[in-house]
Structure formats: C-alpha cells, structure tokens
C-alpha cells in the first residue's frame, strides 16, 4: 500500500526558487511525507521555517568530489539541521575496482551522520543505470559493511532512474538492516506500488502529490 510515509518529497533542480521550496514544505506538512529532499543551500532556510524532516544531498549529482569535500559538505548540512543525508558514491572508483575507497568513504560519512544525533540517516546513491549487475551486487555488500542505512538507486540526473529489476536486486543482495530507496522517474502510482512490493521502503520523487492523488504527473524527476 502506498502511503505518504514512503515519500521523500523532492526538489533538486538547479533553478529551484524559495517560492518552490515553500510550496514543497507546505505540501509535505499537509500530506505528512517522510521528508523534503532539497539541495544543501536550502537546508537552513527550511529548518528555521518549517517543522518537516529534512533530507539533503552530498556530492550530488556526480559523486566525483573528494571524500574530504563530502565530509565538509555533510557536516555543514548537519549543522544546518539536516536529518537525512543522501550521498553519491564515486562511480569512477567503482569502475576502477577500487571498492576499498568507496567503502572507506561510506564509513566516514556514516560515522559523521550517526554521531550527530539520534534518528540521523545516511542513504548511499549508487547510480544503478551506470553499473553492471556484478557492480550492483558488490555495492549492496559495501553499503552494508560501510554502516549506511539505505542503498538508493539514482540521482535522477543520469541516464536512467529506478527500475523494478534493480529494486529486486538491491533488496536481494543488501543486508536486512539496509533499506532500499527508489528514485528517478517515479511519476505513476501503479509503478510506485510495484516498487514498494519489490522491496523499496522509500521513494524519492517530485511527483508525491500526483502519486497520492493517483493522477498523472507532469514532473520530470
């Protein structure tokens, strides 16, 4: 069953205005969405104005910044009041087979997030559309070993978004304590329900209102 508690109500487009952020937060409050997912520059504005759970993104959308840069960005987001952090892994390191680097980065961010207070969550975006099946399976293990709370499919800014097959794979190969977040291209209520049935416990989408009302969405994320 699709409920609002599954949804990270999202606006990550680069031209998002404060008026749009206000609308997002008002909708999240009304519909009791799990979080609002916003860019780091908007975190402090939202936490000072609204009583909503705030998720933000780190190393977004390419994941190619250094670990130290991601840690700095993460610390500032936490200081500004973020409660959930969605980080992007270094995909090039995956392609190089340097899984030690990837796990070490996750471990450092998980430690930072979890030490900042209760109920703080780290999600790890692996950008499934760019990965082989073997890489996805390996990353399920690494995300779990690194201490993250969620493995997440996509940024929504690459060549593809969430698929049913990917959600099934991530659920199958991830440890039981690691949850699965589907994101990218979730604009249809029926598809959202299928993703949940396949194992997703969180959906990242800018179409939350349309999903709850079961109407067509015009959003492109």
Question: Could you please describe the fold and organization of this structure?
Answer:
It contains 9 helices and 8 strands. By secondary structure, the protein is an alpha/beta fold. The chain has an 8-stranded parallel β-barrel with strand order 1-2-3-4-5-6-7-8, surrounded by 7 helices. The longest helix is centred in the middle third of the chain and has 16 residues, at 99-114.
**Gyration radius, rounded:** 16 Å
Overall structural class, as computed from helix and strand content, comes to: alpha/beta
**Share of residues in strands:** 15-25%
How many H/I helical runs?
9
- Unreliable segments of 5+ consecutive residues: none
| Element order: H for helix, E for strand | EHEHEHEHHEHEHEHEH
The largest sheet, given as strand count, sense and whether it forms a barrel, is: 8 strands, parallel, barrel
Note the gap between the termini: 22 Å
Quantity of strands, as a count: 8
How are the strands of the biggest sheet laid out side by side? 1-2-3-4-5-6-7-8
Helical amount among residues, as a percent range? 40-55%
What does the overall shape look like? globular
- Chain-averaged pLDDT: 96
Short structural summary:
It is built from nine helices and eight strands.
Topology:
Layout: E1 7-11, H1 18-31, E2 35-38, H2 43-49, E3 54-58, H3 67-79, E4 84-88, H4 91-95, H5 99-114, E5 121-125, H6 133-145, E6 150-152, H7 164-173, E7 179-183, H8 189-198, E8 202-205, H9 208-213
Parallel strand pairs: 1-2, 1-8, 2-3, 3-4, 4-5, 5-6, 6-7, 7-8
Helix pairs in contact: 3-5, 5-6
